[in-house]
Every structure is written in structure tokens, then in C-alpha cells.
Specification:
Shape: globular
Largest sheet: none
CATH class: Mainly Alpha
Number of helices: 4
CATH topology: Neutral Protease, domain 2
Helix content: 55-70%
Number of domains: 1
CATH superfamily: Neutral Protease Domain 2
Structural class: mainly alpha
Strand content: under 5%
Radius of gyration: 14 Å
């Protein structure tokens, strides 16, 4: 089942202009996930699939059980710098800044 009748069908859109914190919902983690997912998609488009996937997955080892978007984003930026250097980290930082997360 999808939420759209247009092509391509999708369950969640990640190509929207959602922005933190004004689009943040106090009642819907799914809606908040749109903000986070859109930022991760922006990162993937900026640095490529392999570096994005590697950085994002590796950063999860530095996150605690309970975190918020700015904290998680900062950990991803730190991880990118450790793995790929300041240039890649600055591209990721720019993506999070564009979404208002950092």
C-alpha cells in the first residue's frame, strides 16, 4: 500500500522541503522522520551512496539510546571527519544546516 496515487508510488517522501524545527511534530515521529530522512537523502546526493551509508551507519555506534536530531547529526559529522576528512564532513554539515538540524 502506498500513500500516493502518482508515479512513483511511495510510502514516505524524502524529497520535500521540510525543515527543523518548524516542521517538527510533537505527536508524530513518522512526520519527524521525514525531516531526518530528507537530510540523509541530501547527504547521499552530496557525497555518494557508499560514503553516506558507511558514515551514517558507523555514526550510530557513537549514539546513545535516546538522542535528538542535532545530537545525531553532530555524531554523523564527527564520524565523516574521522573516516573521510574535513571536506566530506563539511558537505554533511552543510546538508544538516540546510535542513535546520545543525
Amino acid at each position: 500500500m502506498s500513500y500516493t496515487s502518482e508515479t512513483p508510488r511511495c510510502l514516505r517522501r524524502i524529497d520535500t522541503d521540510v525543515h527543523y524545527p518548524e516542521d517538527l511534530s510533537e505527536t508524530s515521529v513518522h512526520r519527524n522522520g521525514l525531516i531526518w530522512s530528507a537530510a540523509l537523502w541530501d547527504i547521499r546526493n552530496a557525497i555518494g551512496r557508499v560514503q553516506a551509508d558507511t558514515t551514517i551507519l558507523q555514526a550510530h555506534f557513537a549514539m546513545g539510546e535516546v538522542t535528538d536530531m542535532p545530537y545525531a547529526a553532530a555524531k554523523i559529522v564527527e564520524t565523516a571527519e574521522d573516516l573521510y576528512g574535513a571536506g566530506t564532513a563539511s558537505e554533511i554539515l552543510a546538508a544538516f544546516e540546510a535542513r535546520g538540524i545543525l
